[in-house]
Amino acid sequence: MSSNRERRAQTLQSTAEQRGAVAGAALRSDQPEDRILSTTLGDYPAKQRYWGAVARDYNRWRLSSPLRRYIWEREFRVLERIAREQLSPHSTILDAPTGTGRVVPLFRSLGHKVTGVDISLDMLKMQFSQFGDLSCGLVRGDCEVLPFADGAFDYVISLRFMGHVPPEARSRVLLEFKRVARKGVIVGFPVVRSITKLKFWLGNLRYRLANGKPRCWWPATPGSLPKELNTAGLRVANELKLLGPFSQIVFLHLTPADTWPAPSTAVGRPAHLASV
Protein backbone atom coordinates (compact mmCIF):
# COMPACT_ATOMS: atom_id res chain seq x y z
CA MET A 1 0.00 0.00 0.00
CA SER A 2 2.83 2.39 0.84
CA SER A 3 4.49 1.62 -2.49
CA ASN A 4 1.26 2.55 -4.28
CA ARG A 5 1.15 5.84 -2.40
CA GLU A 6 4.79 6.54 -3.26
CA ARG A 7 4.19 5.82 -6.95
CA ARG A 8 1.10 8.04 -6.92
CA ALA A 9 2.97 10.91 -5.27
CA GLN A 10 5.84 10.55 -7.75
CA THR A 11 3.40 10.62 -10.65
CA LEU A 12 1.68 13.75 -9.36
CA GLN A 13 4.99 15.48 -8.73
CA SER A 14 6.31 14.56 -12.16
CA THR A 15 3.15 15.79 -13.84
CA ALA A 16 3.29 19.08 -11.98
CA GLU A 17 6.89 19.62 -12.98
CA GLN A 18 6.22 18.76 -16.61
CA ARG A 19 3.27 21.14 -16.89
CA GLY A 20 4.87 23.99 -15.01
CA ALA A 21 2.44 23.97 -12.08
CA VAL A 22 5.01 24.02 -9.33
CA ALA A 23 4.18 25.43 -5.91
CA GLY A 24 5.28 29.02 -5.60
CA ALA A 25 4.93 29.95 -9.29
CA ALA A 26 2.50 32.84 -9.62
CA LEU A 27 -0.49 32.44 -11.92
CA ARG A 28 -0.59 35.15 -14.57
CA SER A 29 -3.78 36.20 -16.28
CA ASP A 30 -2.26 35.54 -19.72
CA GLN A 31 -1.26 31.96 -18.90
CA PRO A 32 -2.92 29.32 -21.07
CA GLU A 33 -5.20 27.05 -19.06
CA ASP A 34 -3.01 24.01 -19.69
CA ARG A 35 -0.31 25.67 -17.59
CA ILE A 36 -2.51 25.25 -14.54
CA LEU A 37 -2.53 21.72 -13.18
CA SER A 38 -5.97 20.13 -13.05
CA THR A 39 -6.40 16.75 -11.37
CA THR A 40 -9.09 14.16 -11.92
CA LEU A 41 -12.23 15.63 -10.39
CA GLY A 42 -14.96 13.86 -8.46
CA ASP A 43 -18.44 15.36 -8.51
CA TYR A 44 -20.47 17.26 -5.91
CA PRO A 45 -22.15 20.68 -6.23
CA ALA A 46 -19.43 22.85 -4.68
CA LYS A 47 -17.03 21.80 -7.43
CA GLN A 48 -19.17 23.48 -10.07
CA ARG A 49 -20.52 26.40 -8.04
CA TYR A 50 -17.66 28.88 -7.73
CA TRP A 51 -17.28 29.98 -11.33
CA GLY A 52 -18.32 32.99 -13.40
CA ALA A 53 -20.43 35.56 -11.60
CA VAL A 54 -20.20 33.67 -8.30
CA ALA A 55 -16.41 34.01 -8.36
CA ARG A 56 -16.56 37.66 -9.43
CA ASP A 57 -19.02 38.60 -6.68
CA TYR A 58 -17.70 36.34 -3.92
CA ASN A 59 -15.94 38.94 -1.78
CA ARG A 60 -18.76 41.45 -2.21
CA TRP A 61 -21.32 38.84 -1.15
CA ARG A 62 -19.29 37.89 1.92
CA LEU A 63 -19.42 41.54 3.03
CA SER A 64 -23.04 42.16 2.03
CA SER A 65 -24.56 42.29 5.55
CA PRO A 66 -23.42 43.36 9.03
CA LEU A 67 -23.43 39.73 10.22
CA ARG A 68 -21.34 38.53 7.28
CA ARG A 69 -18.87 41.38 7.81
CA TYR A 70 -18.61 40.52 11.50
CA ILE A 71 -17.96 36.85 10.73
CA TRP A 72 -15.35 37.83 8.11
CA GLU A 73 -13.53 40.03 10.64
CA ARG A 74 -13.85 37.44 13.39
CA GLU A 75 -12.30 34.79 11.16
CA PHE A 76 -9.32 37.04 10.58
CA ARG A 77 -8.84 37.60 14.31
CA VAL A 78 -8.99 33.87 15.05
CA LEU A 79 -6.61 33.05 12.20
CA GLU A 80 -4.16 35.72 13.28
CA ARG A 81 -4.14 34.32 16.80
CA ILE A 82 -3.55 30.80 15.49
CA ALA A 83 -0.80 32.03 13.16
CA ARG A 84 1.02 33.91 15.90
CA GLU A 85 0.69 31.28 18.62
CA GLN A 86 0.66 27.98 16.74
CA LEU A 87 2.58 28.17 13.48
CA SER A 88 6.34 27.93 13.30
CA PRO A 89 8.06 31.07 11.97
CA HIS A 90 8.54 31.31 8.20
CA SER A 91 6.39 28.27 7.50
CA THR A 92 5.23 27.01 4.13
CA ILE A 93 1.42 26.98 3.98
CA LEU A 94 -1.06 25.46 1.55
CA ASP A 95 -4.33 27.41 1.44
CA ALA A 96 -6.86 24.81 0.28
CA PRO A 97 -9.09 25.83 -1.37
CA THR A 98 -7.68 29.32 -1.73
CA GLY A 99 -10.63 30.98 -3.48
CA THR A 100 -10.06 34.70 -3.95
CA GLY A 101 -7.12 34.58 -1.55
CA ARG A 102 -8.63 36.65 1.23
CA VAL A 103 -6.37 35.16 3.92
CA VAL A 104 -3.17 35.26 1.85
CA PRO A 105 -2.12 38.81 2.89
CA LEU A 106 -2.47 37.88 6.57
CA PHE A 107 -0.10 34.92 6.40
CA ARG A 108 2.34 36.70 4.08
CA SER A 109 2.47 39.67 6.46
CA LEU A 110 3.53 37.28 9.22
CA GLY A 111 6.43 35.95 7.17
CA HIS A 112 4.94 32.72 5.82
CA LYS A 113 5.19 31.46 2.24
CA VAL A 114 1.73 30.62 0.88
CA THR A 115 0.66 28.41 -2.00
CA GLY A 116 -2.99 28.34 -3.04
CA VAL A 117 -4.87 25.48 -4.67
CA ASP A 118 -8.42 25.69 -6.00
CA ILE A 119 -10.60 23.76 -8.40
CA SER A 120 -12.08 26.96 -9.86
CA LEU A 121 -9.96 28.69 -12.46
CA ASP A 122 -12.20 31.75 -12.14
CA MET A 123 -11.45 32.00 -8.42
CA LEU A 124 -7.72 31.79 -9.14
CA LYS A 125 -8.00 34.50 -11.78
CA MET A 126 -9.93 36.70 -9.35
CA GLN A 127 -7.17 36.31 -6.79
CA PHE A 128 -4.49 37.26 -9.30
CA SER A 129 -6.51 40.25 -10.49
CA GLN A 130 -6.64 41.53 -6.89
CA PHE A 131 -3.06 40.88 -5.83
CA GLY A 132 -1.06 40.53 -9.06
CA ASP A 133 2.53 39.57 -8.35
CA LEU A 134 1.75 39.78 -4.63
CA SER A 135 -0.62 36.82 -4.90
CA CYS A 136 0.48 33.48 -3.56
CA GLY A 137 1.71 30.70 -5.84
CA LEU A 138 -1.42 29.33 -7.51
CA VAL A 139 -2.18 25.80 -8.63
CA ARG A 140 -5.43 24.47 -10.01
CA GLY A 141 -6.31 21.17 -8.39
CA ASP A 142 -8.76 19.03 -6.47
CA CYS A 143 -8.47 18.82 -2.68
CA GLU A 144 -9.31 15.11 -2.89
CA VAL A 145 -6.24 14.49 -5.06
CA LEU A 146 -3.75 17.22 -4.24
CA PRO A 147 -0.99 17.65 -6.85
CA PHE A 148 1.82 17.80 -4.31
CA ALA A 149 4.30 15.31 -2.90
CA ASP A 150 4.03 13.96 0.64
CA GLY A 151 5.06 16.55 3.23
CA ALA A 152 5.31 19.34 0.66
CA PHE A 153 4.18 21.98 3.20
CA ASP A 154 4.47 22.68 6.89
CA TYR A 155 0.74 23.37 7.28
CA VAL A 156 -2.52 23.16 5.39
CA ILE A 157 -5.11 25.88 6.09
CA SER A 158 -8.71 25.24 5.04
CA LEU A 159 -11.63 27.62 5.66
CA ARG A 160 -15.30 27.64 4.63
CA PHE A 161 -14.89 24.33 2.83
CA MET A 162 -15.71 21.27 4.89
CA GLY A 163 -19.43 22.00 5.07
CA HIS A 164 -19.58 21.94 1.26
CA VAL A 165 -18.05 18.46 1.08
CA PRO A 166 -20.14 15.29 1.55
CA PRO A 167 -18.88 13.13 4.45
CA GLU A 168 -17.74 10.33 2.15
CA ALA A 169 -15.53 12.79 0.23
CA ARG A 170 -14.48 14.68 3.37
CA SER A 171 -12.48 11.71 4.62
CA ARG A 172 -10.47 11.72 1.38
CA VAL A 173 -9.87 15.45 1.71
CA LEU A 174 -8.63 15.09 5.29
CA LEU A 175 -6.33 12.25 4.29
CA GLU A 176 -4.85 14.43 1.54
CA PHE A 177 -4.38 17.36 3.91
CA LYS A 178 -2.58 15.05 6.32
CA ARG A 179 -0.43 13.63 3.53
CA VAL A 180 0.97 16.93 2.30
CA ALA A 181 1.36 18.65 5.72
CA ARG A 182 4.48 18.02 7.78
CA LYS A 183 3.36 19.78 10.96
CA GLY A 184 -0.38 20.31 11.09
CA VAL A 185 -3.73 21.10 9.54
CA ILE A 186 -5.83 24.13 10.52
CA VAL A 187 -9.41 23.60 9.43
CA GLY A 188 -12.71 25.36 9.98
CA PHE A 189 -15.36 22.71 10.63
CA PRO A 190 -19.14 23.25 10.83
CA VAL A 191 -20.52 21.31 13.79
CA VAL A 192 -24.26 21.16 14.50
CA ARG A 193 -25.11 20.47 18.12
CA SER A 194 -28.57 19.81 19.51
CA ILE A 195 -29.00 23.45 20.48
CA THR A 196 -28.32 24.63 16.90
CA LYS A 197 -30.16 21.89 14.96
CA LEU A 198 -33.32 24.01 14.65
CA LYS A 199 -31.32 26.94 13.28
CA PHE A 200 -29.66 24.62 10.77
CA TRP A 201 -33.01 23.12 9.70
CA LEU A 202 -34.58 26.57 9.26
CA GLY A 203 -31.58 27.70 7.23
CA ASN A 204 -31.99 24.74 4.89
CA LEU A 205 -35.71 25.43 4.52
CA ARG A 206 -35.13 29.12 3.80
CA TYR A 207 -32.54 28.25 1.14
CA ARG A 208 -34.86 25.73 -0.54
CA LEU A 209 -37.74 28.22 -0.63
CA ALA A 210 -35.53 30.99 -2.02
CA ASN A 211 -33.68 28.92 -4.61
CA GLY A 212 -36.02 26.07 -5.46
CA LYS A 213 -33.43 23.43 -4.62
CA PRO A 214 -31.90 21.96 -1.46
CA ARG A 215 -28.84 23.52 0.09
CA CYS A 216 -25.82 21.27 -0.30
CA TRP A 217 -24.37 21.69 3.17
CA TRP A 218 -23.04 18.82 5.28
CA PRO A 219 -22.03 19.85 8.81
CA ALA A 220 -20.58 17.34 11.22
CA THR A 221 -22.10 16.47 14.60
CA PRO A 222 -20.40 15.87 17.96
CA GLY A 223 -20.82 12.16 17.27
CA SER A 224 -19.64 12.06 13.66
CA LEU A 225 -16.66 14.41 13.85
CA PRO A 226 -14.42 12.19 16.03
CA LYS A 227 -15.12 9.28 13.67
CA GLU A 228 -14.19 11.33 10.61
CA LEU A 229 -10.96 12.51 12.18
CA ASN A 230 -10.12 9.01 13.40
CA THR A 231 -10.65 7.61 9.90
CA ALA A 232 -8.14 10.13 8.59
CA GLY A 233 -5.67 9.38 11.39
CA LEU A 234 -5.94 12.88 12.84
CA ARG A 235 -6.47 14.17 16.35
CA VAL A 236 -7.36 17.59 17.72
CA ALA A 237 -4.47 19.43 19.32
CA ASN A 238 -6.37 22.67 19.90
CA GLU A 239 -9.78 24.14 19.27
CA LEU A 240 -11.31 27.60 18.95
CA LYS A 241 -15.00 28.31 18.43
CA LEU A 242 -15.52 31.12 15.96
CA LEU A 243 -18.48 32.81 17.67
CA GLY A 244 -18.45 31.61 21.25
CA PRO A 245 -19.79 28.49 22.99
CA PHE A 246 -22.76 28.00 20.64
CA SER A 247 -20.85 28.61 17.43
CA GLN A 248 -21.49 26.24 14.54
CA ILE A 249 -17.98 26.88 13.18
CA VAL A 250 -15.06 25.37 15.07
CA PHE A 251 -11.44 26.01 14.13
CA LEU A 252 -9.42 22.85 14.76
CA HIS A 253 -5.66 22.45 14.84
CA LEU A 254 -5.20 18.84 13.76
CA THR A 255 -2.11 16.67 14.00
CA PRO A 256 -1.52 13.05 12.92
CA ALA A 257 -2.66 10.76 15.70
CA ASP A 258 0.30 8.42 15.34
CA THR A 259 3.33 10.68 15.03
CA TRP A 260 3.03 14.37 15.84
CA PRO A 261 3.09 15.59 19.44
CA ALA A 262 0.61 18.20 20.57
CA PRO A 263 1.78 21.82 20.14
CA SER A 264 3.51 23.18 23.22
CA THR A 265 1.54 26.44 23.11
CA ALA A 266 -2.19 25.94 23.46
CA VAL A 267 -4.75 28.01 21.62
CA GLY A 268 -8.02 27.82 23.50
CA ARG A 269 -8.57 24.67 25.51
CA PRO A 270 -7.39 21.17 24.57
CA ALA A 271 -10.29 19.72 22.64
CA HIS A 272 -12.21 16.63 23.66
CA LEU A 273 -14.66 16.29 20.84
CA ALA A 274 -17.29 14.48 22.91
CA SER A 275 -17.97 17.84 24.51
CA VAL A 276 -17.89 19.92 21.30
Report the average pLDDT across residues: 71
Listing every helix as H and every strand as E from the N terminus to the C terminus, the arrangement reads HHHHHEHEHEEHEHHEE
Instruction: Provide the CATH topology.
Output: Rossmann fold
Percentage of helical residues?
A: 25-40%
What's the arrangement of strands in the largest beta sheet? 3-2-1-4-5-7-6
The whole-angstrom Rg is 18 Å
What would CATH call the class? Alpha Beta
Taken together, the total number of domains comes to: 1
SS summary, helix count: 10
Uncertain residue ranges: 7-41, 261-276
Question: In terms of structural class, how would the helical and strand content be classed?
Answer: alpha/beta
Shape: globular
| Fraction of residues in β-strands | 15-25%
User: How far from one another are the termini?
Assistant: 34 Å
Tell how many strands the DSSP assignment holds: 7
CATH superfamily: Vaccinia Virus protein VP39
Major sheet:
7 strands, mixed
CATH architecture annotation: 3-Layer(aba) Sandwich
